[in-house]
Design brief:
Blueprint (H helix, E strand, L loop, with lengths): L4 E9 L2 E6 L2 E8 L3 H10 L4 E6 H6 L5 H10 L3 E5 L5 H9 L4 E4 L1 H5 L1 H11 L4 E4 L3 E2 L5 E2 L1 E2 L4 E2 L4 H10 L4 E5 L12 H10 L4 E5 L5 H9 L4 E4 L1 H4 L5 H6 L5
Parallel strand pairs: 1-4, 1-14, 4-5, 5-6, 6-7, 7-12, 12-13, 13-14
Antiparallel strand pairs: 1-2, 2-3, 8-9, 10-11
Length: 249
């Protein structure tokens, strides 16, 4: 049986740990903890993985967290998946060189799916996490905004799911933008749909998780992992307890 992974998340903007509400840069909550200290706390709690997001780069391009990533890798045992501002293969290589275990590719995964498929072939599926962040429109279609969720790329979720499954992708991060930072619970119906369309992808649930019951619910619908953001930062559940529920026997 494949392990279910929990990914404590650190979103960084202007050097601070923050969370955005539904991807809106004008609705930011700042948290009084240094990003490196947050990573240390998660490592001390027993986390294996960290999800690190460069929000400045997601909007403007040019990954800026190389020094922080190197510090995290130097003083913790954490594996790190990280992204923001990935625009070219050189960006992937640079982030991997800083110590990333996986590079998250978001906007380019939507704008240039053929290029990202080539990256998967060159660097291997274990080195990349494809992020398809989605928002449902008035007609019920799942759209794929890009550039820090500020622009609608006009692409269909199902078509790209099929594309990346055929390209050999392994790791998929899917965020329902309407749930992100809201503590409304994960969109389990969306995740059932994603797994029905692309059953070979290891899906990470993201957006809306409130506590341990939601973590369990994402597991029960077939997700391979869950990204833990606002609820964890606000102490709404105990990370040690959550990790213990899925520790190897």
């Amino acid at each position: 049986m494949t392990a279910y992974r929990l990914y404590p998340a650190i979103d960084v903007r202007g050097g601070r740990v923050v969370r955005l509400h539904q991807g809106d840069y004008e609705r930011e909550t700042r948290y009084p903890i240094d990003p490196l200290e947050a990573a240390r706390r998660y490592a001390d709690a027993g986390a294996e993985w960290l999800h690190l997001v460069d929000l400045d780069a997601a909007r403007n391009g040019g990954y800026t967290l190389g020094a922080l990533l190197e510090s995290i890798k130097g003083c913790t045992h954490l594996k790190v998946q990280t992204g923001g501002g990935v625009r070219a293969m050189d960006d992937v290589d640079r982030i991997l060189a800083c110590g990333a275990d996986r590079v998250v590719v978001g906007s380019l995964a939507v704008k240039s799916p053929d290029a990202v498929a080539a990256w998967l072939a060159r660097r291997g599926a274990s080195s990349l996490t494809v992020a398809l962040d989605t928002r449902q429109d008035a007609e019920g279609c799942w759209r794929l905004p890009v550039a820090g969720w500020t622009e609608d790329a006009g692409y269909d979720l199902d078509a790209l799911l099929q594309h990346y499954m055929e390209a050999g992708a392994r790791h998929l991060l899917c965020t329902d933008i309407a749930r992100d930072g809201t503590l409304r619970g994960p969109n389990l119906a969306l995740y059932r749909h994603v797994l029905a369309v692309a059953p070979s992808l290891r899906l990470q649930a993201s957006g809306g998780i409130r506590g341990i019951e939601d973590i369990h619910a994402a597991h029960d619908v077939g997700c391979a992992g869950a990204v833990l953001g606002k609820a964890l930062l606000e102490g709404r559940f105990d990370l040690v307890e959550a990790l213990g529920a899925y520790a190897p026997c």
